[in-house]
Specification:
10 helices; seven-stranded mixed sheet; single chain; 314 residues; alpha/beta; 10 strands; globular
Length: 314
């Protein structure tokens, strides 16, 4: 089976198992620019047709492209509230500052007080380049998954990014969605769109991150359109096949770690459940994948953890 790869960041394909069609992008903005300039006729209406905002996140593709360009400002307060609640309940202790007679930076109050240990010493571990953790965050969800659950999960992802960075790692976040042709049990007969929403070393832009991993239109408008504008993805058929989560073992050896979407579990249905059960659910998956920042943690029991499985339709 010939593998077709399109987009302006084809290197993202290296993180994923082989699939029939891949659409890979540097940012939501660049995917939006491509769709804005698309002049052809899509092979199906999904992504391009007007939709109910309660289902697709907005009515038109143009509105989704605008959100991709400017970020999701309305979603920021909710995402920040959940993220901050999680971080307050799961604090990461700061590293103690080391002082000596010699060092790199003077501490003026210590020097004035006569303390001879008034020079801050550099931590050699942090003077080196931070190791990079790549998180692949699934956007896939069937039609029965609420927009609130998707947004609540985005806030948990933002909190996990904070937790990983507090442990001394740089974080890259890539939003992905996968679908297999309807009725097919063969994952090779699948399509994937992946979009980088945060580069390693880039400060967290909550509006941008919230849109990339938590706005329904990112999936049901932009990603749908990225499939239906390319005839090489038409094997999905007009219903766009069925979404699914990758198995934890499918990224082994690829230096990336998978965060499953809200499909098949109720742990993101409310803000309260997302802050505890949703966080434990995602971290349990990272522990299973031996993600370095969580390698010494033990899994926690989660009520209704769901399964990583195929889903019959969107």
């Amino acid at each position: 089976m010939e593998r077709v790869i399109v987009g302006n960041e084809k290197s993202l394909a290296d993180y994923l198992p082989p699939m029939r069609f891949g659409s890979f992008w540097k940012s939501p903005e660049s995917l939006g620019d491509f769709l804005k300039d698309f002049k052809g006729k899509p092979w199906a209406d999904a992504g391009f047709e007007d939709d109910r905002p309660d289902w697709a996140g907005c009515r038109t593709l143009a509105e989704a492209i605008d959100l991709a360009q400017t970020g999701w400002k309305e979603g920021v307060p909710k995402v920040v509230k959940i993220r901050d609640t999680i971080n307050a309940l799961n604090p990461v202790a700061p590293k103690a500052v080391k002082y000596g007679i010699c060092g790199a930076i003077p501490d003026v109050p210590r020097a004035i007080s006569g303390n001879i240990l008034n020079m801050k010493q550099m931590d050699s571990a942090f003077s080196k380049r931070k190791p990079v953790i790549t998180l692949l965050s699934s956007m896939g969800a069937n039609c029965g998954t609420s927009g609130d659950a998707i947004t609540n999960r985005a806030a948990v992802v933002a909190a996990i990014v904070d937790q990983v960075e507090a442990r001394g790692f740089a974080v890259e976040v890539i939003a992905i969605a996968t679908a297999k042709s309807f009725g097919s049990g063969d994952k090779l007969n699948s399509a994937c769109t992946a979009v980088r929403v945060k580069s390693a070393g880039q400060p967290v832009d909550i509006g941008r991150l919230a849109y990339g991993v938590g706005h329904v239109s990112m999936f049901r408008k932009l990603i749908f359109a990225s499939w239906t504008c390319d005839k090489d993805a038409s094997f999905l058929s007009s219903c766009l096949g069925s979404t699914y989560n990758l198995g934890n073992g499918e990224l082994e050896g690829k230096n990336a770690y998978y965060l499953p979407g809200p499909e098949g579990t109720s742990v993101f249905n409310t803000e309260e459940r997302a802050c505890k059960e949703g966080l434990d659910y995602l971290i349990n998956n990272l522990i299973d994948q031996k993600c370095p920042p969580f390698k010494d943690m033990k899994k926690k029991k989660v009520k209704d953890p769901g399964e990583i499985k195929f889903v019959d339709d969107f």
